[in-house]
Amino acid sequence: MSKPTPTPRERIVAGAADMISRRGLNATSIRETAKHARAPLGSTYHYFPDGKQQLATEAVRYTGEWIARTLRKELEAGPVAGLRAFLGLWRGIVVDSDFRAGCPVLAVAIEEPPSDETPAALVAAADVFTTWEGLLADSLRAHGAEPAQAAQLATLTVAAVEGTVAMCRAKRSTQPLDHTADQLRALILATTTD
């Protein structure tokens, strides 16, 4: 069965996620995103009348759900399998992009907001991190980890992987990913009963 062709809106959101993952939020414009997604500039404003923040929010949610879908599926086999899949996704992104792309969720989270208000994209980034942590913590608890320890290890895992992706880009190497994988796997095995 063939995969359905993405709609113009979906192409724009995926293009924005890719651009943000490479350039960061502040260096990503609506015009460049439309060009990158091979979409007319007018359709970008049609789908995202509130502009760049609305588009960035959707890009963060898109990335968050894409990763969460994979985590949900892989965590069925346990937290080590989920960790392996989580790291595998990021390995693919950094290697396939020749170390030019990272995580658009992290990119949005670390940039200074444009005003005194908390932008919707930053709120979406926090929600995504919380979702990923929740999925990992649930799996850890289901495999024998104490609730508090499961929550802490889930936070450590998300934080370590996000930081490791940034290190891989800077060093142009997957070595940080390999080191992080080994240590997180050991922590998970020491925390769980099966």
Structure report:
With 194 residues, the protein is mainly α. Helices cover 74% and strands 0% of the residues. It contains nine helices and no strands. It has helices at 8-23, 30-36, 41-47, 52-75, 79-96, 104-110, 120-142, 147-171, 175-191. α1 crosses α6, α4 (52-75) crosses α5 (79-96) and α5 packs parallel to α8. The protein is elongated and about 55 Å long. The termini are far apart.
Topology (elements, then pairings):
Blueprint: H1 8-23, H2 30-36, H3 41-47, H4 52-75, H5 79-96, H6 104-110, H7 120-142, H8 147-171, H9 175-191
Helix pairs in contact: 1-2, 1-4, 1-6, 2-3, 4-5, 4-7, 5-8, 5-9, 6-7, 7-8, 8-9
Query: What is the N-to-C succession of helices and strands?
Result: HHHHHHHHH
- The proportion of residues in beta strands is under 5%
Q: Write down the overall geometry.
A: elongated
- What distance separates the N and C termini? 37 Å
Sheet/helix structural class: mainly alpha
User: Which blocks of ≥5 consecutive residues have pLDDT under 50?
Assistant: none
Share of helix, binned: over 70%
According to DSSP, the number of beta strands is 0
Q: C-alpha Rg, in Å?
A: 17 Å
Number of helices: 9
Mean pLDDT: 93
Main sheet? none
Describe the structure in brief.
Helices cover 74% and strands 0% of the residues.
